[in-house]
Design brief:
The chain is mostly helical and 379 residues long. 74% of the residues lie in helices and 0% in strands.
């Protein structure tokens, strides 16, 4: 057995172990109501399929038994189940229509059908199975490319809407999923090029060395982010979302229209609204609430969330998230100067759950970390 064969076996063992443990975690762990349970269970099912196939491949490679599940091409197709699953996740989270999960499930079902067809063809003639395999790989590349472009816009609109509703975006932003899709597309392209340029023994070995470690990385990143995701419950979806976006002055263009003009005098309604909003959020300490939403503030102001978003955008040009973030950071900066509270006490008091999120937001706003900001003022 060569070193390349050993590496192949090690990677299959790693994928088998990780996918099995992760699948059991997502399938059976009880989570709070904020966790997107349907997606967690779906990911658990996909990883269980990967774990089963990897275990058979791993056993077959050691025993020398040439069974169907020991086929490397089948192993690749099983790993590519993550392509339609990522798209299913994106459609479910952005809610492009009412039945997106059902429609997204069709993508996963189609990929499972591909696996069945490949198995049938292999049992008849390996040459037919090979032709079907390469055709499927080409179609998957096209399929993935189309959906990366299609959902990039959907994800951007979704993130805009979430920023109008939630003050805390941790576990709600889906930029990471778009990055995984792009990573998978580039990865698949590199794999295809390698298979075309090289032929025979080394193309299989080198492709395997590239494919399995990167697959494992994608499993780890995907599993970690799904575990961090929190359920989005109070934002409009589909036609309702589009209607609200139009009413709020948002659009789907690449550049968001800013209805606020710097230096423009506010109307009487806008002035009264902003005074009330500032009072409710600062004096009422709403900004310090963890997980505060647009509905919470609207209720405190005895208004509706659509009016709140519309007037806030017109008066300041800010989303709800940006407005609350500004108040929190202003309060944090004041506390850094005027109190001896620790940074942990300050970020928690100002509504942040983690220090990393607070540091990132503070640095973006002030150009230095909270610790550096306090040190500069002391000197």
């Amino acid at each position: 057995m060569t070193i390349l064969d050993r590496l192949d076996d090690i990677m299959h063992a790693a994928i088998m172990a990780f996918s099995l443990i992760s699948s059991l975690y997502f399938l059976f762990q009880k989570c709070d109501e904020q966790a997107p349970m349907r997606l967690r269970r779906s990911l658990g099912a996909v990883l269980l399929i990967v774990a089963i196939q990897s275990s058979f491949y791993f056993i077959g490679s050691f025993t020398g038994i040439d069974i169907l599940v020991n086929d490397k091409k089948l192993a690749v197709l099983v790993n590519l189940l993550l392509v339609p699953f990522c798209l299913l996740m994106l459609t479910e989270l952005t809610r492009m229509s009412v039945v997106t999960f059902r429609k997204g499930s069709i993508h996963v079902g189609a990929m499972l059908a591909v696996l069945v067809i490949y198995c049938i063809l292999r049992s008849v003639d390996q040459q037919y199975a090979d032709v079907f395999y390469y055709i499927t790989m080409g179609e998957l590349l096209i399929y993935l490319g189309i959906y990366v472009v299609r959902f990039a816009k959907a994800a951007k609109r979704y993130n805009k809407t979430v920023a109008d509703v939630y003050a805390d975006l941790d576990g709600r932003s889906i930029n990471w999923l778009n990055r995984i899709l792009i990573m998978m597309m580039l990865f698949a392209l590199a794999y295809a090029v390698l298979k075309i340029v090289l032929h025979g023994y080394y193309d299989n070995r080198l492709a395997g060395i590239m494919f399995y470690p990167l697959s494992l990385i994608i499993y780890v990143v995907l599993s970690w982010n799904v575990d961090q995701m929190r359920m989005i419950e109070s934002i409009p979806y589909g036609d309702e979302q589009r209607a609200v976006l139009e009413e709020n002055g948002n659009n789907d263009d690449d550049e968001e229209e800013d209805t606020h003009v710097e230096g423009r005098e506010l109307t009487a309604e806008q002035k009264e609204f902003m005074e009330q909003l500032d009072t409710v959020c600062t004096e009422g300490n709403l900004y310090s609430m963890h997980g505060i939403t647009r509905e919470d503030v609207a209720k405190a102001m005895m208004t509706n969330h659509i009016r709140l978003t519309k007037l806030l955008k017109e008066a300041t040009g800010l989303t709800f998230n940006a407005y609350i973030t500004k108040i929190r950071l202003d309060q944090a900066a004041r506390m850094l100067l005027e109190t001896n509270d620790t940074i942990e006490q300050i970020y928690y008091t100002c509504g942040y759950r983690t220090r990393s999120t607070f540091n990132r937001a503070f640095t973006d706003a002030f150009g230095c970390t909270p610790k550096e900001y306090r040190s500069k003022t002391e000197h």
